[in-house]
């Protein structure tokens, strides 16, 4: 009965919000109600919210539900009454009104009654008062055919539970938003952790049975949060790459570029091995007699990255880039390769990085003698 009276209230609220929305079918189940209606496009979250609010206000108004057998001819004169298109009704027909006695309607059929209250032809059993619906939650709104949409709604304790759950998830999303924003600002929250938390909250949101408009609002918040993490990550990577280039320039400034030399350094660029490459390229033009190898550690993936560049002059002395990285792989594990002049490697032994740097220096210097 909650779902049946709720269906009438929903039908009324939909016309209020959408103007034209003709009923195309409905199903009243013990645990939910389903309502199909004509509409050209999907309802916006605001429209769904407004529809839900109108029904909630009808519930709070604690209207009496009136039913009365009425001659069909007289009943049909009631302006604005919601009848199902193409359906044939018995005579007399049972008029069901939420909030205003049927006699008032038939006594003044051109009055505003059916605009202000839910009035339908219905032979079914109903609640005595609208407050007995308790609550309503429109959990889905979707297309089922061209021009036909379907709303699934909960009433009674199920609706109260849905609203309680929505409140809990809203709190979770709000807390996450604060945590991610402050974590991005002071750099205390790794981007990967932030993304993982957002995805997890998004998953529990998707699996929740709550009002669609509340779900949609939270999804928007999560999407913009996800975007702010991506933006911050990108900005951070750009900054690290710039710092790596600056560091490379600094090293080059301290070199006697006429002499052959070896540079082996760690750069704080995380998993951005492209930044290592950019830093390395500085040597190609500005220190053409220097063999350079740069390392970085990526705590997220638990990997050490290594890139190197060897000028031809040093290759002929026996320092080959592809062999040089092999000395690194012996320490860091993993794999790598390349040509005699450029090579790269990556390995899992992050805590062996100092040893890998030392091994690479020793090997290269021994070739330079
Ligand atoms: Zn009915």
UniProtKB/TrEMBL annotation:
The keyword Protein biosynthesis applies. GO terms for cellular component: mitochondrion. One of its GO terms (molecular function) is tRNA binding. GO terms for biological process: alanyl-tRNA aminoacylation. SMART domains: tRNA_SAD. Belongs to the class-II aminoacyl-tRNA synthetase family. This is alanine--tRNA ligase.
